[in-house]
Write a structure and sequence with these properties.
The structure is a single chain. The chain is of the alpha/beta class. It has helices at 46-54, 75-80, 97-107, 112-125, 141-153, 171-184, 197-203, 221-226, 232-240, and strands at residues 6-17, 20-31, 35-39, 61-66, 69-70, 82-85, 159-163, 189-193, 206-211, 214-219. It has 2 domains: 6-81 and 157-240, Rossmann fold (3-Layer(aba) Sandwich); 93-156, no CATH class. The chain has a 6-stranded mixed sheet with strand order 6-7-8-3-9-10, with helices on both faces. The protein has a 4-stranded antiparallel sheet with strand order 2-1-4-5. Helix 4 packs across helix 5 (141-153). The termini are far apart.
């Protein structure tokens, strides 16, 4: 059986700031249909890696590809394949969600009936019905997170990179987002950054862990737990604590 095609590729990725290596020769491949949890302690290089994969930050050396497209040399075409939810991502506070989504649709050339179709989809999936015409500046943190998820999904991307997607959500909304991520992961590729181990078990089929800019673990959630005697927090501790 042929393996699904690579959708996210990091090849010898490095990011240096002077003599400091934020990311050091990092390589991994994520294929179509995978939902992968991206773990690491604060300062480990996780956010820097995600920014390089999305094209928001140029690597010092190495290559990042989305759907086989180099994100540095062909960023516009790569961006067409990508839905990105940054942690605490910028939203235009004076706009309503409807206006914001129209703005992003126009920027991506998503017009007419297709915009209406996708707006209906993200409104339902991200529970925006009562928020569509409320100024974003008046929305709660959890509501803003749902608007951010909607813009990431609006153009129906093949690859999703989500940085802490359940931040600020209440338990019912967290449950909904988990179900949405699992559903989307059946046909798309998702890289999910989180600090919450219950998110890993609920949504991911694979775990990547970075520490000190290096790949410290790549395997299934069950294999990750086994490294900590059946406890994910112990596995995380043992893989990221240096004597």
């Amino acid at each position: 059986m042929t393996e699904p095609e690579p959708m996210i590729e990091a090849v010898d990725l490095c990011k240096h700031y002077g003599s400091f290596a934020a990311v050091d020769d990092l390589s991994f491949t994520i294929r179509r249909g995978e939902v992968v949890a991206f773990l690491g302690p604060n300062g480990a290089g996780k956010s820097t890696t995600m920014k390089m994969l999305t094209g928001y930050l140029a690597p010092t050396s190495g290559t990042a590809r989305l759907c086989g497209i180099d994100v540095v040399s062909d960023r516009v075409r790569a961006a067409e394949k990508l839905g990105y939810l940054p942690e605490n991502g910028p939203l235009y506070q004076e706009m309503t969600p409807r206006e914001l989504l129209r703005f992003f649709a126009d920027a991506r050339g998503l017009g007419g009936g297709r915009f209406v179709e996708r707006l209906d989809f993200v409104t339902a999936e991200c529970d925006l019905g009562e928020l569509l015409d409320k100024p974003i500046g008046k929305c709660s943190k959890g509501q803003k997170q749902r608007v951010g998820m909607a813009q990431a999904l609006l153009h129906d991307p093949e690859v999703l990179i989500l940085d802490e997607p359940t931040t600020g959500l209440d338990p019912n909304q967290i449950r909904h987002v988990r179900g949405l991520v699992k559903k989307l992961g059946e046909t798309r590729t998702i890289l999910l950054s989180t600090h919450l181990f219950q998110e890993v078990e609920a949504m991911a089929g694979r775990v990547l862990l970075v520490d000190d800019g290096l790949l410290a673990f790549d395997g299934t959630p069950a294999e990750f737990k086994a490294r900590g005697g059946g406890q994910m927090d112990q596995a995380f501790h043992s893989l990221t604590t240096h004597s």
